[in-house]
Amino acid sequence: xxxxxxxxxxxxxxxxxxxxxxxxxxxxxxxxxxxxxxxxxxxxxxxxxxxxxxxxxxxxxxxxxxxxxxxxxxxxxxxxxxxxxxxxxxxxxxxxxxxxxxxxxxxxxxxxxxxxxxxxxxxxxxxxxxxxxxxxxxxxxxxxxxxxxxxxxxxxxxxxxxxxxxxxxxxxxxxxxxxxxxxxxxxxxxxxxxxxxxxxxxxxxxxxxxxxxxxxxxxxxxxxxxx
Length: 227
Fold this sequence. Notes:
Blueprint lengths: L4 E6 L6 H11 L5 E6 L6 E2 L5 E2 L13 E4 L6 H4 L2 H11 L4 E5 L2 H7 L7 E2 L6 H5 L5 E2 L4 E4 L2 E4 L4 H13 L2 H10 L18 H14 L1 H11 L2
Parallel strand pairs: 1-2, 1-5, 5-6, 6-10, 7-8
Antiparallel strand pairs: 3-4, 9-10
Helix pairs in contact: 1-6, 6-7
């Protein structure tokens, strides 16, 4: 590869930092990638954990994008209904080699029509919202690759997503090298990382929390796409 590919991670207010910064951390170690962040205005903003995020570029100054990475958050309605954001995604997607997302970033892409005709996934608690977009084949998997669309599940899936993306764009050997550098060998203390394995009471609690945080988004999708 004669020239590094531009990998652009979108930042926005109240996003889940790990959705974007886990892939950013990993992909920045790939020498064939030129990674950077961008936001609508290019000014500092806060993630949902309160950490201050400083984008490298604004929409106006953003370089060409080869690989677009759109992270998510507890409620991404603001990005879904922002005409400027949606138009930017559509415009840049036309020239990008890969259109990708982590967690509920898939909903931002879905609203822009950029997942129509593709298989895609999102956070397990938002699968029903993604499924409302009937032109998308929604699946509940850790990472889904469908041609030049790569989507990851919730939050920590961004690590698997980044390694998968690296393997798809480059080679599995490059991805394995990066995995070893980061000593990525998950050994969680509990088998509660999915609704299939977590205790029922915990699943119900998380569904309630997720529902409360995304109520306006759910209402938006229900009103717009209800059959």
